[in-house]
Amino acid sequence: MSNTILKKSAVALALTLAFSGYAAAEAHIAVVNQDSSEAVESGNNMYIEQGGFLNWAYADQYGEGNDTFLLQLDSLQEAYAYVTGDFNLVEGEQYGFWNTLDSDIQGDENVLSSFQEGDYNVAEVFLTGNANTAIVEQSGSANTAGIDLAGDYNSASIAQSGDLNWANFQIEGSDNYFEANQSGSSNEAGYFTATGNMNTFIADQEGDGNVGGVVGANGDMNEVYVQQFGSANIFIAQSLSGNENFVDVYQDGSSNEFLIQPIQGDVNEIVVNQEGNTNVVEAATGMIGNYNTVDADQNGDNNYAVFATEGDDHIIEMDQRGDNNIAVAESYGSFNDIYISSRGDENFNGVALIGSGNEADSRQIGDVNTAEIVIVGDDNDLYSRQHGDSNTLLAYSYDAGTTSGNELQSTQTGDINLIDTIIGGSDNVIAFAQEGNSNVIAGDEGSFIVGGNGGNVDIQQIGNNNVVTGGQLSDSNTMSVYQQGDYNVATVVQY
């Protein structure tokens, strides 16, 4: 029993009675204590119904097979039920504007159901044991519902309708199922410090300024499903660890955010879909481990997405449709795959590969787009495709002279396109293709420096006013330049 709540209730009732001229006849207080510690075949049964204004019910049950029913009608009600034993069922139903339900159950196979309708509702449920079920439904504004589950085979469901609602789960155990449905604005739903396997969390939020997420979860084969409809909503996943976990987030609206910091483990999968403008996917330290998968999709303008993985055998897929979008994917490790696709104008694709045996594919359809590819490591395959006008490709490697065995293929279709590249190392293969007018492949202090041994460069241009300069350093290099069109200039420098 919470002494703080009891004191608050006593003070509230005293003040209300003092300043109410008619409430003396309707000031209800019910306190029941039951103990069935003796040898009995069935337990205790309790039924409390209070109608009126100033209701307060407190119930204590010990023993086997206990049933508690609390029904308090309108106005200032507070109900507490503390049950210790087996086969307990507690149901509380309150109508009014200031409802509070605080329940503490310890034992096995407990079921608690609470329905509150009105304003300023607070429901806190604590369950410890096995095969527990807790359901809380609140309708109104400024509602708070919290469920704390410890044990196995637990199920918790929270449904809130109104504004400024808060729902949370704190779980320890296995095979748990949690669900929160919220309608309104500035709602929050999530589960925290969860420990266990095969947990499922489902949250549906409709409105603006909602927050949903998972913080401090540890376990395997957990599933998180969050849907947010509205604007300025946020999903947060922080300090998650385990294997074979699945996170699926859908956000429909503007100025929504998807934040991860980070997820650690192997064979984890993240799927995020954002519909609208000015949305953000922020996962600069997204996933740490091996065999993880990321699928990010944004549809709208002025969106931003960055995702980084650390480990081997990852797959990152990012797709953007709209204008003025930014997509950045970073991979630290070996045998990782990155696929970035953007359709629209003035978009930016960024790829960073730090490791060996990685593959990156960047595709852009539209005008005034920029693709930047950075590699540090050996035996990486890079592909860049740009279709449109005034597009730019920047491809280079750090630690020039130590990056070897990489392959870069670039294709540009359109007018006034630019390729600027610096690749250092040995046994690299580079192929460029441009089709259109006023295309440029830079070089001679304007990048396009390919260094290393046994390198191969193939440049093709079809169009007018094209310029190829260049420079290839070191030994046994082969360069082939093909130009078709008017006013083309080719300068090839090999040392």
Automatic annotation (TrEMBL):
GO (cellular component) term, any one: pilus
Domain of life: Bacteria
Keywords: Signal
Pfam families with a match to the protein in the record: Curlin_rpt
Any GO BP: cell adhesion
Signal peptide (residue range): 1-23
Family of the protein in this entry: Belongs to the CsgA/CsgB family.
Official protein name in the record: Curlin associated repeat-containing protein
Source organism per UniProt: Idiomarina zobellii
UniProt lineage: Bacteria, Pseudomonadati, Pseudomonadota, Gammaproteobacteria, Alteromonadales
